[in-house]
Fold:
Amino acid sequence: MKGETRKKMVVGAADLIRRRGVNATSMREVVRHTGTPRGSIGHHFPHGKQQLVEEALLLAHQEVSAPLAELVSRSGTVSGLRAFIEGWRHILQKSDFEAGCPILAVAVEQYIGDDGLPNPLAQQQLLDIARTALEDWQKILCTGLRKDGLPPARARRLATLIISSVEGTVALCRASRSVRPLDDVQTELEALLTSAIKTVQASD
Amino acid sequence: MKGETRKKMVVGAADLIRRRGVNATSMREVVRHTGTPRGSIGHHFPHGKQQLVEEALLLAHQEVSAPLAELVSRSGTVSGLRAFIEGWRHILQKSDFEAGCPILAVAVEQYIGDDGLPNPLAQQQLLDIARTALEDWQKILCTGLRKDGLPPARARRLATLIISSVEGTVALCRASRSVRPLDDVQTELEALLTSAIKTVQASD
DNA sequence: GCTTGACTATGACGCACGGCATATTATAGC
DNA sequence: GCTATAATATGCCGTGCGTCATAGTCAAGC
Structure:
């Protein structure tokens, strides 16, 4: 199979970044964890760790946005939100609260380059990917809410609130080793959304 | 001055963890950054980096919870929320969006010990501190909301939503190098809170 | 003044890291 | 079958890390 090893490395890197963050994820650990050959790193990823991390982040981005966009356009914003949250709940529980969102990890730590020093340029590139992913998710929810009739500014604010609170609550769940924060946030967000949609549709 | 150097180290560690996370913050960098003597690390922190990080987290915990508790009990929950958010806005802007919440950083990454390997025990201790801090902040808001008349379950859920969304949005702001997410979340949270309080007080 | 204790300075140790070079093996294409 | 190219294996390099040991400094207390 062509590119089999490469893909395993990207997936393994994403999984490790979920659990440990970027800096605590070493290339050696990636190949140990995935059973892939160490010598192939430089072959598949000539730009080194930075490249591997970037592809892992893009993968994590897609794995969320693809089903989210699907569900929002097919079954509505609230259904999309439900699936979005359910996805995170699954990741948390399956990993015994050890895994979270790799995008958030990048936004919270500072990338340490190959020379062992913080690399502002590399960090900026990773941040750009993180920003793009977060904006993409938000945009999906935002357009869904606008289709539900909400005014643009309100839709944007609510979409921001959703992304922020879900990302934040995934971290809370890891700290408390419980899904209760996620449950609470889900309850409030769904109530808020349905109320906002109902209100604006009643005024039509 | 007794304990001057020690305090500078803790403050400097907290500041670096804000910007870089735990793993990207080395003890050598702390002493470089604070102008404190390297040889004093082992003297003031015989348990090493773990101890220094723990004290930095406790400091960050207190620096938030003390004024938050004050304001919530004195001027009400909404005022407390406003100050809470304002504090984060200040940290973001003063650092040009490079600093965030050290508590969140601990919840998102996995601590790498002195042997260069993940140390589950040490990580658990750091997570406990993070959990305690987050629960403390939440409890402050929760009791405030209950004093505003909200039923216990609702108060808890709203407090969780506030902490989650603000922590999450601070990370979003770092990624987008903008305070807009924080502004949007603030708008929605304040509206949600005042609405919830007004509703429950009208039904009295 | 000298001792005692707390604090500071400095270098060494072992380790894991990312990257690279080289050698070896598999897999095409023809 | 042979060759060219992709892929894998493995060891080395330099670096920064956390920790420790040892030596030096400095301020009280008597």
User: Anything to note?
Assistant: Residues 26-28, 41-42, 48-49, 113-116 of chain B lie near DNA strand D (CB under 10 Å from a C1').
